[in-house]
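Below is a concrete protein record.
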Amino acid sequence: MTIKEHLGSLHLRHAEHHVEKSKHHLQLGKHFGKLAEAFGKSEMGETHAEAGECLQKIADAHKSMAEHHAEEANYHTQCAKTLRDSHKAMMGDDDPDALVPLEGFSVVTRDAPKSKVFGVPRFGQREIPIPTDDVLGKIIGVGTDE
């Protein structure tokens, strides 16, 4: 799995999660709204009226969270679509490994021989010691007086 595939599936999973959370909060909002309405119609006096107001505030909070999760689901769905579309626009197909590296640029790949993988020193970093093989040293004359 490539990074773009991973990001695409991650955004889709987040979108699915937010859709489910939105549905859940919407149901809770409806439930607490019905309770608030029932308490508001009660003849038990001021206590039930106050409870009805509190329940209505809870219902409104759940409806607000449902809207938030719906917006987040739309955002993640749009991110997944944009990622997919940009990938197709850049690559021309669905194979991210189809790009050929430009000559002169360093590319580290999974199957590169170890001799082509090397550290890149940063500014102020101490020099990286490079071990030399004795045979190579004799051929190029490293460490000899001749």
